[in-house]
Amino acid sequence: MADGNFGHISEADERQMLDAIQKWIEKKVAPVAMKLEHDNEWPADLVNDMAELGLFGAIIHPDYGGLGLSATTYCKIVTMISQEWMSLTGIFNSHLMMATVVQRFGTDYQKEYWLPKFATGEMRGGLGLTEPDAGTDLQGIRTVARRQGDNYIVNGTKTWISNAIEGHCVALLVKTDPDAQPRHKGMSMLIVPKIDPETKVPLKGVKNGKKLEKLGYKGIDSGEFIFEDYEVDAKKSLVGGEEGKGFVMATGGLEIGRVNIAARSVGIAKRALAESVKYAQMRKTMGKPICEHQAIQLKLGEMAAKTRAAELLTQDAAAAFDRGERIDMEAGMAKFFASETAVEVSLEAMRIHGGYGYSKEYVIERLYRDAPLMCIGEGTNEMQRIIIAKQLVARNPI
Ligand SMILES: Cc1cc2nc3c(=O)[nH]c(=O)nc-3n(C[C@H](O)[C@H](O)[C@H](O)COP(=O)(O)OP(=O)(O)OC[C@H]3O[C@@H](n4cnc5c(N)ncnc54)[C@H](O)[C@@H]3O)c2cc1C
Q1: Scanning 111, 153, 330, 353, which has its CA 20 to 30 A from the CA of 368?
Q2: Which residue's alpha carbon is at the smallest distance from atom 23 of ligand 1?
Q3: Could you tell me which residues come within 8 angstroms of residue 165 by beta carbon, excluding any fewer than 6 positions away?
């Protein structure tokens, strides 16, 4: 296993878990997703349900109170939920990326301190990498953490952080040595709470800026963090207890995040395809269902083949991760192909639905608005193709 933390459950146990989640989706998510999305309302009740289902601890080891699921099972869950409302998966996935940083790179003390709180959802959060002037070029970040005795003093601004406003803490990429060359050697990862983890009292020196308005991915909060002389205990916060490792944690260490984006994309594409197959049999023009027009058949055929290919690439990357293999290329391929497929398939679904595809009363316009984010988050698709190419050359030297 890649980090020694991903377990396997029997097929029967997996089936039982997926059935329980499917029932929850049908009973609790489907009736409210459309309204919450259009109102851009944070889904408090569904977040409580997800905590009860154990999703905030889905890939946290059982020793720390999590479910310890394999990446394969986890991806199936993510795809299922994304078929109904992709935003929900962002709430626990961003949180689990923060947890993965601790689980994979943290000290024993940090694992024991943070992971049980993360597993229950008592302390929820996300990953704080991006800044107003640095997204892809993470080495260009300006947030600085200066050591002062047993503490770090943090100053800087992060933006576009999922769960920033409704969450309680964040895995924060900082510069502990802003002058280091190469730049990544001066970067570290800190776990920084907004509230005291024991008393839940808000802490000084950290505040959220505005909640950011978006094309899609509604419901989940995307926001800014502003740190002004924010003080945090080094033993609890400096992941791994050693400075200079943050860049590796933020990039190479989180391929599972890319597989997750692929799984979300598969969910979007599967739903768009399913709606299209249904609608094409119901809608009639020229005296027959539109599924009997060859122009529509060509679309459905291509959508189905690409969606299945995206699903297989995602399963392939998840399985390689579970076997403990290096998966930067596999995760990049799955993320790139599945997200581009989600964009294409949701647009084709809109064309098949004609004017109704453009209506807010149908789910298609939401899938169409949600899909492009999958091409941007967790490393843009431009970068994924570059990663794939570099790996191809590295793995096949002449
Ligand atoms: C809804 C939403 C949620 C998000 N959630 C989070 C979160 O939870 N945590 C977090 O840290 N960030 C988050 N982000 C930020 C996201 O990760 C960044 O937007 C993304 O990394 C791209 O960075 P950028 O926007 O600064 O674009 P830039 O880095 O400025 O890139 C602009 C364009 O240039 C291309 N480009 C840049 N460099 C190169 C290069 N070297 N070679 C080729 N092409 C290049 C990019 O691919 C892109 O097309 C979120 C963003 C959104 C929209």
Answers
A1: 330
A2: 135
A3: 208, 211, 221, 223
